[in-house]
């Protein structure tokens, strides 16, 4: 049973380009969460999605960032017109039901985004 | 913002028990206490969680005070591989498990 798969593992973009980060949850999991981690800091919640629905995006920057979790395929975190401050590790997690209700999260290995 | 307070770092001798404290004085009645660990550059790994009662699994034990305002993660026999960052977080309905800075445990031979 494969775990949460994220790709690419490393992504390099120049300022102004777009970054697309993909996350395939564990088999049987329909809840996906995206977190961002700056160097030497803890993880910051960004967005929580179920299939085809955004449940909570309270941690998402208002501009340039978007996320989706289509009926088929992986969840995508999209960052438009990247800036150097977007450089961070982006982690995806999944759970079979709503996390934090006596349910644990399973994390992927993350995507390290570097903006030149 | 994180709802927990943890020491930034702690030391422990190899083979001894590591006791990692966490304060969560504003915890609500329906919120669980979770512990995760993170090896550098990898995603966090679940360790244990609990609501009111103490919990034990193959990785660790979790001791929650009666008033639930603090807890302790116990690694019974620390090894050098346990030298990672440990996060204590609280979560419940509507809370997306916000991670704070965590505790960096240094296990020394």
What string gives the helices and strands of chain B in order?
Answer: EEEEEEEEE
Estimate the helix proportion of chain B, in percent.
under 10%
Helix tally of chain B equals: 0
The overall average pLDDT of chain A, rounded, is 92
Largest sheet of chain B: 5 strands, mixed
Computed over alpha carbons, the radius of gyration of chain A is 13 Å
Greatest interface (CB-CB under 8 A), with counts per chain: A-B, 28 and 26 residues
Uncertain stretches of chain A: none
Order of helices and strands of chain A: EEEEEEEEEEE
Helix content of chain A: under 10%
Number of strands of chain A: 11
Write up this protein.
The complex is a heterodimer of chains A (116) and B (109). Chain A is built from no helices and eleven strands. Chain A has 116 residues and is an all-beta fold. In chain A, strands 2, 4, 5, 6, 9, 10 and 11 form a seven-stranded mixed beta sheet that branches. In chain A, strands 1-3-8-7 form a four-stranded antiparallel beta sheet, with no helix packed on it. In chain A, a hairpin with a 5-residue loop joins strand 4 and strand 5. Chain B is mainly beta and 109 residues long. Chain B has strands spanning 9-13, 18-23, 32-38, 45-50, 55-56, 61-64, 70-75, 85-91, 103-108. Chain B has a five-stranded mixed beta sheet with strand order 1-9-8-3-4, with no helix packed on it. A four-stranded antiparallel beta sheet of chain B has the order 2-7-6-5, with no helix packed on it. The radius of gyration of chain B is 13 Å and the shape is globular. The chains are: A mainly beta (116), B mainly beta (109). At the A-B interface, strand 5, strand 9 and strand 10 of A face strand 3 and strand 4 of B.
């Amino acid at each position: 049973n494969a775990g949460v798969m994220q790709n690419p593992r490393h992504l390099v973009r120049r300022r102004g380009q777009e970054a697309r980060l993909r996350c395939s949850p564990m088999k049987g999991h329909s809840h996906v969460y995206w977190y961002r981690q700056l160097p030497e800091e803890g993880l910051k919640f960004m967005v929580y999605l179920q299939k085809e629905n955004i449940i909570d995006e309270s941690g998402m920057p208002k501009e340039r960032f978007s996320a989706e979790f289509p009926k088929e395929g992986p969840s995508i975190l999209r960052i438009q017109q990247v800036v150097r401050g977007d450089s961070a590790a982006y982690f995806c997690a999944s759970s079979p039901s709503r996390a934090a209700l006596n349910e644990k999260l399973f994390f992927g290995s993350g995507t390290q985004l570097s903006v030149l | 913002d994180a709802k927990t307070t943890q020491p930034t770092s702690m030391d422990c001798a190899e083979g001894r028990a590591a006791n990692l404290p966490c304060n969560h004085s504003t915890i609500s009645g329906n919120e669980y206490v979770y512990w995760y660990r993170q090896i550098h550059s990898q995603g966090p790994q679940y360790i244990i969680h609990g609501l009111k009662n103490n919990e034990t699994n193959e990785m660790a034990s979790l001791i929650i005070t009666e008033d639930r305002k603090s807890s302790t993660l116990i690694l019974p026999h620390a090894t050098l591989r346990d030298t990672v960052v440990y996060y204590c977080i609280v979560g419940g309905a509507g809370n997306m498990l916000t991670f704070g800075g965590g505790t960096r445990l240094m296990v020394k031979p």
